[in-house]
Specification:
It contains eight helices and five strands, in the order αβαβαββααβααα. It is an alpha/beta fold and about 140 residues long.
Length: about 140
């Protein structure tokens, strides 16, 4: 039971992202809420394009991540252009970076943050979840 083991390590972690956005019985909404998770980041293909509260859990749509850097051996510059294009064409965009692929993006990270900060505010998933939680209380 991965969620229970996660909680044994640190109860302060507020969110969860299922590997490859595959929701299993262990990682369904009820299980996440039962273990006091506030948000779940998963593919926008399954939940839409806007963060929203569903069944006491904030669903944060992830538009893209760094998997193509690894899987398709996409050069960072091409991936960065894809990311910036997606940012430019969306009012909200969440993306993910995996620590296991960090060698592919970490050298570029400070410059990437500087570039994308020109398009809007960079926020954590916790901050996005807080907005959705407060909005659902109104």
């Amino acid at each position: 039971d991965q969620l229970s083991r996660c909680r044994l390590v640190d109860r302060r972690v507020r969110g969860f992202r299922p590997p490859q956005s595959r929701i299993t019985a262990e990682w369904d909404d009820f299980s996440l809420v039962f273990r006091n998770f506030d948000w779940c980041g998963t593919s926008s293909r399954t939940i839409g394009d806007v963060p929203a509260m569903h069944d006491h859990l904030v669903k944060i749509p992830i538009k893209l991540d760094d998997f193509p850097l690894f899987k398709a051996a996409m050069p960072f510059s091409a991936w960065e252009r894809q990311l910036i294009g997606a940012i430019e064409s969306n009012d909200f965009l969440a993306f993910g970076l995996h620590d296991c692929y960090a060698d592919l993006w970490l050298p570029h990270y400070p410059a990437l943050l500087e570039k994308i900060s020109r398009f809007g505010e960079i926020r954590t998933f916790d901050a996005v979840a807080d907005d959705a939680i407060f909005a659902s209380a109104l």
